[in-house]
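EI: anyone free to look at a 315-residue chain?
SC: sure, send it
EI:
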Amino acid sequence: MDGSAPGAGGPRLDLAAFEELRRQVHRLAPAGSPARGALEHLTAERVLAAVREVRTGRHVGLGAPVATEPGPGNPDPARHPMTGAVAGRMRGQGLEFARDRIEMNVHGDVDSHFDALCHVVYEGTLYGGVSADTLTDAGAGALSVTAAEAGIVGRGVLLDIPAVRGVPWLEPGEVVTADDLLAAEEAQGVRFGPGDLLFVRVGHRRRRHELGPWDASESRAGLHPAAVTLLAERRIAVLGSDSNNDCAPSPVDGVGFPVHVLAIHDLGLPLLDYLQFEELAPLCAAEGRWSFLCVVAPLRLRGGTGCPVNPVAVL
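SC: here you go
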């Protein structure tokens, strides 16, 4: 490891240091069903405790509008054609139905989505040592989104990193360290822990809205991989961000998405990428509390490596 920083306060890691970090994280992986991974931390008792977070009944969606127009960072946009009754194609009498269909690149750099535990292949394996050969043209034979088909319900915690730093957003390439997470906890008077759904705001969506889109595959704010150790020690159930969770360029030599490798492949921690918190963060700030009931309902997509998602936060 050397001391240079790819963003704000994040050291670069060589491959040997990254492999040691992987070993540390793997030792903290949850026991129980490999198919559920860190969702094992989300017990019935913790769900009941999360329900008690509801005080006002106000609720907001954390998914961004589906992007159907091509642009920087979105070369393969979702397609949403109308297939039924529309102006100019109706008989004008009797019963007709408006219909549509949607096709999308689930794991792109714009749309909000859920990453299942089969999403990351590293050194020929998936989480828990499952062979990558379980991935076929018919879908994932193990660790797919169906592990969460009953939904994910728990206590959400939002850490607003730009607000703690006194800026509207982090610039592309900046990193969020474990110290940043701890500083946000202290500033906001909240602590994330076992079974929580942790959401880390970097301001990606606000920057995109105010300055316009850019190619986030090349440059974006996100977590430094060393911060995953803290998440493993705290035994969270889900990690989500308004960015990709990984920063770019990667701070690890030769590994493009180190947080995805550590979280999904080594820890069994499902990810929610490219959410939006621009409605939730002001509500939390106004109420002076940063925890809430959160409901995530992934699609029942057999063999899916992920799916579009719109989590709902209930305050």
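EI: Residues 1-7 have pLDDT under 50 and may be disordered.
SC: 👍
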